[in-house]
Amino acid sequence: MVDDPGDIKDETPATSEIIAKARAAYLGLAIGDALGATTEFMTPAEIKVIYEVHRKIIGGGWLHLKPGQVTDDTEMSLALGRALLTAGKWDRKGIADNFLAWMKSKPVDIGATCRRGIRDYMLKGQLETPYNDWDAGNGAAMRMAPVALFTLGDEAALAQCAIEQAHLTHNHTLSDAACLAIGTMVQRAILGCNRFELHEVTRELVADYYSFRFNNYRGNASAYVVDTLQTVFNFIFTTGSFEECLLGVVNQGGDADTTGAIAGMIAGAFYGLDAIPVRWLKKLNQNVRAEVENQALGLVALSPWRQRQV
Using CA atoms in the order 129, 131, 134, 136, what is the torsion angle rounded to 10 degrees? Predict the structure, then answer.
């Protein structure tokens, strides 16, 4: 594990920018989670009555969180990242072990599908849950940031690892497609793609799975992965900043911690570290912030992109 940011030496400005965008992607996940948890399960009308526009990390919500506290979106991502940094390589069993330890720690929230998959691992040693028509939820997609950083520079490795981590708890074609699209968008944004090139990923996804189309966004932001990506894509491509994107997403309510987390990782990767509002960084739980940043550096250090440079 990288304990000192100096362990990754930024030889060039371009390298430094890529590493900063990787940090921003992971921080974006945590910030979107903490910001969106307040409005989870609310409707846009309810949010407007209470907050007018929800724009501060204040905790609360149905989970009664402390300001800056995160939920399962960030906690499962960190559990996944710890396994990779401990092993120094892709380690599906290590990830499953960490998910199990996390579940036993009695987290503030855990989705039913994630709980079922982790229990099946605990009871049966199962590392791949069977296909299930009810597995098209958000639980696998929300934890894609560490996978994208670990496989940065190798989209074939990304595809393999995205599906393997997903199938620990979720096995559904739409979940798989969502995980791969999110990971691809994060990687390409980190490596400097423009908005049109970022949009190309969504066009390819919609060509394969038409249900993900989002050009006539209907405002659904449920725990169904199609609704989630439609919400994320709509605000990624109709806004012009990290802050504007996240505010649009979390004020839709619904599964707002997860839509916030996924939008945050993509927008963080695209807009970069300097685009994240300082007030949100300061409000994020500082232990979470430290581990997120540390993991980002460590995962990028293990990535194919980085290995080609050493």
Answer: 90
**CA dihedral sign, ordered 204, 251, 114, 93:** positive
The C-alpha atoms of residue 263 and residue 283 are separated, in whole angstroms, by: 19
Q: What pLDDT, in 10s, does the model give residues 245-277?
A: 999 999 999 999 999 999 999 999 999 999 999
Query: Structure pTM?
Result: 0.96
Domain that holds residue 179: 5-307
State the total domains in the chain.
1
Measure the CA–CA gap between 235 and 213, rounded to whole angstroms. Answer: 13
Residue 186's closest CA among 287, 299, 108?
Answer: 299
Q: For the chain, how are helix, strand and coil distributed in percent, rounded to 5?
A: 65, 0, 35
What values do phi and psi take at 133, rounded to 5?
A: -65, -15
Q: Supply the CATH number for residue 253's domain.
A: 1.10.4080.10
- CB distance 22 to 266 below 8 Å: no
Neighbours of 208 (CB within 10 A): 11
CA distance 19 to 13: 10
